Amino acid sequence: MTITSRSIRDAFVSRFGGQPKLFCAPGRVNIIGGHTDYNGGFVLPTTTGLHTWVAIAPRADRTLRVFSRIFDSLEEIDLDRIEKCDDAQWYQYVKGVASILEGAGHTLRGADIVIDGDIPLGGGLSSSASLETALAFALLDCAAIEIERGELAQLCQRVETEFVGIRCGIMDQYVISRCAKDHAMMLDCRSLEFQLVPMPADARLLVVDTGVSHRLPTGEYNSRRNECEEAVARLAGKIPQLGALRDLGLDQLEENRNLLDDRLYRRCRHIVSEIQRVEDACSALRRGDARRLGELVTASHASLRDDYEISCSELDALVEIMNACPEVYGSRLVGGGFGGCAVCLVHAPHLGRVMDKVQTEYAAQLGRRPWAHAVTPSDPVGPAPAIEPFVAQ
Ligand code: GLA
Fold first, then answer.
1. 316 part of a folded domain
2. Nearest atom within ligand 1 for CA of residue 28
3. pLDDT at residue 28 is higher than 90
4. What integer best gives the mean pLDDT of the chain?
5. What is the pTM of this model?
6. Are residues 39 and 163 in the same domain?
7. Which among 28, 29, 30, 37 is the best mutation to test ligand 1's pocket, defined by most ligand atoms within 8 Å of the CB?
8. Shortest CA distance to 216 belongs to which of 44, 340, 47, 86?
9. Each residue of 69-92: pLDDT tens digit?
10. What residue spans of the chain are helical by DSSP H?
């Protein structure tokens, strides 16, 4: 069912009464730049027309009463006693956001909250970063605290790294906090400088879910990050100015290959070549060269599959099915990997036909018709659209 400002407001009123304020945050689709963010590199993400919604009204005490429509579950959190729990429950993110904001000196108010959303969970479209930013924005607004959007993104990233335990990069929270409608964001994850690049009018992004929930296997994700750090430590003996894989050139990697085992060498080869692909992709996007952009996107998938080893058979099958459509410029897995969605860049007039063809072929090969979504890059986190006045028919 479509979520609207009216539906989330109504859900709040029937549960808690009163008049809430409404906020929403989009999900993200990374066009290219897989796992480059925590290596200080570039990424080229955009946002989706899918959102997390938050309805919020202040309370007189320091309690958060939070109802998730997605899980049909109510949780109470005492802002003066936020305890981490080990189970990966949805309210872990609520606790994490409240804890990190309070820890950063932002004293929150108690609130009644309803959460809803249409971003598939574990689909690689950043449902968790979207929840974090929507909630943080709403809680800060409720306490009349204004912070800069870049700081908001960094605080929400800390929810993952310090509370949930995933040592993720800054990409997801940053693009959700600062992107712009109909644009992609070329982000330097080291300096946090960014440029907004318009999406070409004649090409659209289509995401299709393998149905394999990735649940971002914390171990696998963190182990990739540890491998990158180990490679930097080994190479730094020979290349003293090396602070992160961002600083490494392909030629330097080849020259110093003997310092790495084959696995670390391939991890580095992915990151170094991917950072270059993001720069090339950004140039292609600016020229409106969808064909070149597509080639780079497909090369990114091959590198994530073979060198970074974060794909799975369902993702590889989906990417092959997408690339077999002549109207598709290129495709790759999105997000952390190990399942979730793949994205393809499609010649816009054929979007509907490609969507149907990919879903039908995936169903024929893997036995289930996958969920698919045509991406319309939307506004960043902020107040939800105003409720349309009711017009009697
Ligand atoms: C997840 C993380 C991001 C990024 C991607 C891979 O979405 O949250 O920081 O590392 O994986 O590009």
1. yes
2. 7
3. yes
4. 95
5. 0.96
6. yes
7. 37
8. 340
9. 999 999 999 999 998 876 678 999
10. 5-16, 91-103, 127-142, 149-158, 171-178, 218-236, 250-255, 262-287, 290-306, 313-323, 351-366
Q: Where are the alpha helices (DSSP H) in 237-261?
A: 250-255
Q: Whose CA is nearest to atom 9 of ligand 1?
A: 169
How long a stretch of residues is the chain? Answer: 393
- Expressed in angstroms, the distance from the first to the final Cα of the chain is 22
Q: Do 213 and 171 share a domain, yes or no?
A: no
Q: Does 25 share its domain with 100? A: yes
Query: Which ranges in 125-190 belong to alpha helices (H)?
Result: 127-142, 149-158, 171-178
Q: How confident is the model over 200-251, as pLDDT tens digits?
A: 989 999 999 999 986 555 688 999 999 999 999 999 999 989 999 999 999 9
Q: What are the tokens at 53? A: 């919604």
CA–centroid distance, 350 to ligand 1, in Å, is 30
CA torsion angle 27 154 122 13 (round to 10): -60
Same domain, 150 and 212: no
Amino acid at 278: V
Separation CA 149–CA 158 (nearest Å): 14
Name the E strands within 79-215.
111-117, 183-188, 194-198, 203-209
Atom of ligand 1 nearest to the CA of 37: 10
Q: Is 304 helix (H, G, I), strand (E, B) or coil?
A: helix
Q: Catalytic pick from 112, 172, 209, 307?
A: 172
Residue 94 has pLDDT above 60, yes or no: yes
With beta carbons less than 8 A apart as the criterion, state whether 125 and 172 touch. no
Whose Cα sits closest to atom 2 in ligand 1?
168
Residues 151 and 212 in one domain: no
192 CA → ligand 1 middle, Å: 15
What range does the domain containing 30 cover?
5-197
DSSP 350: G
The answer to whether 316 is a known catalytic residue is no
Q: What is the DSSP letter of 367?
A: S
Percent of the chain with pLDDT over 90: 92
pLDDT at 264 over 90: yes
* Number of domains within the chain: 2
Structure tokens at 379: 């506004």
DSSP strand pairing (42-58 vs 194-198): unpaired
Q: Cα Rg for the chain, rounded, in angstroms? A: 21
CB distance 331 to 298 below 8 Å? yes
Return the bridge partners of 67, or none. Answer: 74, 114
Token pair in block for residue 140:
């800060």
